[in-house]
Amino acid sequence: MDQDVESPVAIHQPKLPKQARDDLPRHICRDRTKRKIQRYVRKDGKCNVHHGNVRETYRYLTDIFTTLVDLKWRFNLLIFVMVYTVTWLFFGMIWWLIAYIRGDMDHIEDPSWTPCVTNLNGFVSAFLFSIETETTIGYGYRVITDKCPEGIILLLVQSVLGSIVNAFMVGCMFVKISQPKKRAETLVFSTHAVISMRDGKLCLMFRVGDLRNSHIVEASIRAKLIKSKQTSEGEFIPLNQTDINVGYYTGDDRLFLVSPLIISHEINQQSPFWEISKAQLPKEELEIVVILEGMVEATEENF
């Protein structure tokens, strides 16, 4: 501001942060080359953070279900196919070994011989019988007989393990399919955030809207300022996260998102933008991350 406005005789002029003061240098080189700043969170909502030098990789296997859900679709489908194929081959090999040890292969055309599994004459037929057993198809051409106790035990083991594999893999695929990540594609944020006066207060504002007719239940919004800082003791904290108040104390952060809404943050003395001047703002290496949470009305899934 001008000197006469800052003087004690100013008439009820509200105290403004550095962004609105006129006594600071206004000249900003508009033709300077824009700096390429690597984003902390990309526009699609994915964090641009890569974990390196992770030594205790076994921790991923302790929570194998979440690890499979977090994998990309191509790896998930590959594991899905490989798990079933390996189990079918493994039990098919055991069925063939039982038939080979009992001598069923030497009495294929002998009508007086009672084999463990009828019409099992090689590894291919044993593999097909393994698939029929685990998937409960039951064509009826290959049938286990009551003269083979080891085969009956194997049948029970394969049936139980097959049910466990089906529950695990189908559950994993169902959770992955039902994830509401694509729901965020229809949530649109304004391309630019603006700083201007609103009701006599300097505010940082941006807009958010939903393109779908189905509403988001219990929608809430938060904002974080990602900016490196140095403490008074000289400690450097990279990518420090600071809360940006967008109506937490007044309840304005709870949204009824049936039409586009303007989210406002008042730049006051508690705001992290209070000490950043208008000339300094374009030079700051900072990032604002907006987090919108809610529940999809159609599926009742949280996102």
CATH H-level superfamily title of the largest domain: G protein-activated inward rectifier potassium channel 1
The number of strands is 8
Strand content: 15-25%
Work out the radius of gyration: 33 Å
The CATH topology assignment of the largest domain is: Immunoglobulin-like
Structural class: alpha+beta
Question: Any chance you could write out the topology, listing elements then pairs?
Answer:
Layout: H1 3-6, H2 58-62, H3 64-70, H4 73-102, H5 123-134, H6 149-177, E1 187-189, E2 194-198, E3 201-210, E4 216-230, E5 236-244, E6 254-255, E7 261-266, E8 286-296
Antiparallel strand pairs: 1-3, 2-3, 3-7, 4-5, 4-6, 4-8
Helix pairs in contact: 3-6, 4-5, 4-6
Characterize this entry briefly.
The protein is an alpha+beta fold and 303 residues long.
Structure description:
- The protein is an alpha+beta fold and 303 residues long.
- It has two domains: 67-178, Helix Hairpins (Orthogonal Bundle), CATH 1.10.287.70; 183-296, G protein-activated inward rectifier potassium channel 1 (Immunoglobulin-like), CATH 2.60.40.1400.
- It has helices at residues 3-6, 58-62, 64-70, 73-102, 123-134, 149-177; strands at residues 187-189, 194-198, 201-210, 216-230, 236-244, 254-255, 261-266, 286-296.
- Strands 1, 2, 3 and 7 form a four-stranded antiparallel beta sheet that branches. Strands 4, 5, 6 and 8 form a four-stranded antiparallel beta sheet that branches.
- Helix 3 (64-70) packs across helix 6 (149-177) and helix 4 (73-102) packs across helix 5.
- It starts with a helix and ends in a 7-residue tail after the last strand.
- The model is unreliable at 1-14 and 22-33 (pLDDT under 50).
